[in-house]
Design a protein that fits this description.
Elements: E1 4-5, E2 9-15, E3 18-29, E4 33-40, E5 43-50, E6 58-64, E7 78-85, E8 92-101, E9 104-111, E10 119-129, E11 139-144, E12 147-153, E13 161-170, E14 172-182, E15 186-194, H1 207-210, H2 214-238, H3 248-269, H4 277-295, H5 301-325, H6 330-353, H7 356-359, E16 364-366, E17 371-372, H8 373-391
Parallel strand pairs: 2-8
Antiparallel strand pairs: 1-3, 2-3, 3-6, 4-5, 4-7, 7-8, 9-10, 10-13, 11-12, 11-14, 14-15, 16-17
Helix pairs in contact: 2-3, 2-4, 4-5, 4-6, 6-8
Length: 392
């Protein structure tokens, strides 16, 4: 077969005001290697490129930014391209070509919320902006996971081309690409991934937990259970230290019965509907009891102070275990702490302060300022509110 060479196009990429690459390409037969020369006025750049192979009849030569430092032509300029077969100098071709610069491609991915079937609504948008001095309209395809989902051509050489595609995607990794066919600039891609759990089978994301009465019943029972255990244990511990008209121990014992009933109900009906429910229960109870007992350690310091601080520390340890087990964010953990202080600790302390004798039992941290442990709790509460409002 006789040697034959054609020249197809000259495509460039731009960085700032300068060319960052220049690719010349075409077709070829019966020639293993070619010399490519690109001329712009008095400036000449040369390169040797591979020619035809048993599996390909295309050739291309790409000049780097370093090779284009003194090359004066840019987007929209006309250059002369000469191509010659190295082993057959009589096999050659030349052609005047306009430098077509690749458009700027911006790909954006917007993800919605996970659906019950394990999919997530995703919108992929792409904006293709023509390079300066473009002479041909952009023609491109939007490709998702290897499949073309949208094609388009700019209305003119200076028109911006926009793509937008929406659909529900399965969990996993996905790749969205823009294949620029005119000019022949290849693909630009972005990869994204997500994981959505299905509402099938067991677990807190099951349909039984999300779409039945358990959606509201289980959180209610759990709150009653944890709050009752915390109040009951705190009162049982504090009771022997104080002589009041009402026996704190008796009140605590009554509340403990309620807590046990709620525990049995939750364990039978709802235990699968809350991640780390045991760790969360132990955190709430230990932290609340520890904070309450320490707050009133002013009257029974040797009995309450050290056990109260230890219980508070144990509660925080269970909180961290729960956060790690259930993959909670820092904001999720802080919001849980805020909830427990507001709904558990402060109300219990306020109830106990309604008894006149207990008001004198607040543990004082800084006597000169009469700064008590309860004041420290309120400072912590205020700090958490400010942090979560600004960061979460």
């Amino acid at each position: 077969m006789a040697c034959s060479i054609t020249i197809s196009n000259v495509v460039a990429t731009v960085s700032g005001a300068n060319l960052s690459s220049l690719t010349v390409s075409g077709t070829i037969t019966d020639c293993a290697e070619v010399d490519v020369t690109v001329t712009c006025g008095s400036s000449v750049i040369k390169k040797t490129a591979a020619g035809s192979t048993p599996t390909s009849s295309n050739w291309s030569a790409t000049f780097s930014a370093a090779e284009l430092v003194n090359f004066p032509c840019t987007c929209g300029n006309t250059v002369r391209v000469d191509v010659q077969c190295r082993l057959d100098p009589l096999c050659n071709n030349w052609q005047l070509e306009t430098i077509q610069c690749c458009p700027t491609v911006d790909i954006q991915v917007e993800q919605g919320d996970c659906k019950g079937d394990g999919t997530k609504p995703v919108t992929i948008s792409a904006t293709l902006t023509p390079a300066p001095n473009s002479t041909i309209p952009i023609q491109a395809d939007l490709v998702l996971d290897g499949v073309s989902v949208q094609s388009g051509t700019g209305s003119s050489s200076i028109a911006i081309l926009n793509f937008s595609h929406s659909g529900d995607l399965a969990s996993g990794s996905h790749t969205a690409c823009v294949q620029v066919n005119q000019p022949n600039c290849g693909s630009q891609c972005t990869t994204f991934a997500f994981e959505c759990k299905t509402e099938n089978g067991d677990g807190e994301n099951s349909a039984d937990c999300k779409k039945t009465y358990k959606k509201w019943f289980c959180p209610l029972v759990y709150t009653i259970m944890t709050l009752s255990f915390a109040i009951a244990i705190a009162l049982l511990i504090l009771g022997p230290c104080f002589s009041l008209s009402v026996s704190l121990a008796d009140v605590g014992a009554g509340i403990l019965v309620l807590a046990l009933v709620a525990f049995v109900v939750f364990w039978l009906l709802c235990s699968k509907c809350l991640c780390g429910w045991i760790q969360k229960l132990l955190w709430r109870v230990a932290f609340t009891v520890g904070m309450v007992v320490t707050t009133f350690a002013g009257c029974c310091t040797t009995t309450f102070l050290l056990p109260g601080l230890v219980l508070t520390g144990v509660g925080i340890a269970f909180l961290l275990w729960w956060g790690h087990l259930c993959k909670k964010s820092l904001c999720d953990v802080l919001k849980e702490v805020l909830f427990v202080i507001l709904a558990f600790v402060v109300p219990v302390i306020a109830f106990l302060l309604s008894f006149q004798p207990l008001q004198a039992c607040l543990y004082v941290l800084i006597p000169i300022w009469s700064f008590t442990f309860y004041d420290l709790i309120l400072v912590l509460l205020y700090s958490l509110i400010l942090y979560t409002q600004s960061r979460c």
